[in-house]
Write a structure and sequence with these properties.
42% of the residues lie in helices and 19% in strands. The protein is an alpha+beta fold. The strands form 2 sheets. It has a 5-stranded mixed beta sheet with strand order 5-4-3-6-7. A two-stranded antiparallel ribbon has the order 1-2. It is globular. The two termini are 26 Å apart.
């Protein structure tokens, strides 16, 4: 456990892993998802993660020809550990659900908090467009598969400039219709399925 924390416990490292969990990212994209981190600190953390075999750098083929950072297969295995920590920490009365979220943070939250019993028997393809970031998800066998990609024929799509607007429907019980009327969320497609989808992620009770 102590060695694991040496590898991924340094400040910002779990959040960098979270941002990379659904596919490779450019340096500028990582900065956008983690606006409070400085360029120097991000560079240091990326170099450390690369040296430890948790991520790698590669160059995209033309016409992009951009350098991206991507988790190694072993790096992707860290999701279970991060999810377990997330489930544990959210029970603290000090957890503040109003803090800003990136799109990757919301997707990671969904994968962590989904209730397999509530999702039993549901099959759905759901698209998310959160700011400039698209996500394609598939609900299947009580699990949510997520890819950072344009949705392909989704049953419904949720669009919002900020992830916390969608989180308000999922975790705070804010009605989707009210969020739409306020211009914070847009739902396109099967509305009844969308209304059911936002109920699949109950938060555990707070301690003490």
């Amino acid at each position: 456990m102590a060695f694991a924390l040496e590898l991924v416990g340094e400040r910002w490292v779990p959040l960098i892993l979270r941002e990379l969990m659904f596919g490779p990212r450019r340096f500028s994209e990582l900065r956008r998802g983690l606006p409070a981190i400085s360029a120097n600190v991000l560079t240091q953390r990326l170099e450390s993660l690369e040296a430890n075999g948790i991520l790698l750098r590669r160059r995209l083929p033309p016409p992009a020809s951009a350098q991206v950072y991507e988790l190694t297969p072993w790096g992707y295995e860290s999701e279970d550990a991060l999810a377990a920590l997330g489930r544990w920490a959210v029970r603290s009365p000090l957890h503040d659900p109003r803090l800003p979220l990136s799109g990757a943070s919301l997707m990671m939250s969904f994968r962590t908090m989904i209730d397999p019993a509530r999702a039993a028997g549901m099959e759905a393809r759901v698209g998310f467009e959160i700011g400039p970031d698209p996500f394609s998800t598939r609900l299947h066998d009580g699990r949510l598969e997520v890819a950072r990609a344009e949705p392909d024929r989704p049953d419904f799509t949720m669009r919002s400039p900020e992830a916390r607007n969608i989180a308000a429907a999922v975790y705070a019980g804010e009605p989707l219709q009210r969020l739409e009327q306020a211009g914070l969320v847009q739902v396109e497609g099967d509305r009844s399925l969308a209304e059911r989808f936002v109920t699949l992620f109950p938060l555990p009770p707070k301690v003490g």
